[in-house]
Specification:
The complex is a heterodimer of chains A (114) and B (115). Chain A has strands at 4-6, 10-13, 19-21, 23-25, 31-38, 42-49, 56-57, 64-70, 73-78, 87-94, 104-105, 109-113. Chain A is mainly β. In chain A, strand 5 and strand 6 (42-49) form a beta hairpin. The mean pLDDT of chain A is 91. With 115 residues, chain B is mainly beta. Chain B has strands at 3-5, 10-14, 19-21, 24-26, 32-39, 46-52, 60-61, 64-69, 74-79, 88-96, 104-105, 109-114. Chain B is globular, with a radius of gyration of 14 Å. The chains are: A mainly beta (114), B mainly beta (115). At the A-B interface, strand 5, strand 6 and strand 10 of A face strand 5 and strand 10 of B.
């Protein structure tokens, strides 16, 4: 069964910590995405990547960075976690040229920053 | 920039009844794609249905169908014979056809199906 795997379902971190959220897909997809989901705000795009070592800012990149050293893995990094980054983080992937194809999502990481 | 608006934050429907979720969008493009995604309590986002703007015919997937009104920029989702398993957040999304532009999502509608 093809899938997108997020390393943690729940995560609790302290303010100021460096946080890594990992996402791995096994479908050889070129495109990978990180979204943040908050009640009443829907899904907001943080960063996306078209290919290895490539990254593009989404709508809310401030306070985040990403890394894509291998095609199957796309990491979201919170350099210094803050309480306003408490949220659900969703990773997704799709085929190259397939931004109008369906996204396949991971099951999300609920991050709490205390 | 494209925007997607879902005007109903929450809705409820009796089991076996029909419910319609609203979605409007704003774009200057002529060719594009529209989607409805479902997020049940398990949090796993699932594609429900997809519509290509150049196709006149409304998309249908079993009990799920859309009413696509291109001139009005409206893309509503109809769920027939609602089941308890349809309880979920539903997100409308837009993808342009020009270049690699990521999907833009609405804020979602929380649907509760009541026994």
């Amino acid at each position: 069964d093809v899938k997108v795997t997020q390393s943690s379902r729940y995560l609790v971190k302290r303010t100021g910590e460096k946080v890594f959220l990992e996402c791995v897909q096994d479908m050889d997809h070129e495109n990978m995405f990180w979204y943040r989901q908050d009640p009443g705000l829907g899904l907001r795009l943080i960063y996306f990547s078209y290919d290895v070592k490539m990254k593009e800012k989404g709508d809310i990149p401030e306070g985040y960075s990403v890394s894509r050293e291998k095609k199957e893995r796309f990491s979201l990094i919170l350099e210094s976690a803050s309480t306003n980054q408490t949220s659900m983080y969703l990773c997704a992937s799709s085929l190259w040229g397939g931004l109008n194809e369906k996204l396949l999502f991971g099951s999300g990481t609920q991050l709490s920053v205390l | 920039a494209q925007t997607v608006t879902q005007s109903q934050p929450e809705m409820s429907v009796q089991e076996a009844e029909t419910v319609t979720l609203s979605c409007t969008y704003d774009t200057s493009e002529n060719n594009y794609y529209l989607f409805w995604y479902k997020q049940p309590p398990s949090r796993q986002m699932i594609l429900v249905i997809r519509q290509e703007a150049y196709k006149q015919q409304n998309a249908t997937e079993n009990r799920f169908s859309v009413n696509f009104q291109k001139a009005a920029k409206s893309f509503s989702l109809k769920i027939s014979d609602s089941q308890l398993g349809d309880t979920a957040m539903y997100f409308c999304a837009f993808a342009g056809n020009s270049g690699n532009t990521p999907l833009v999502f609405g804020k979602g509608t929380r649907l509760s199906v009541i026994a």
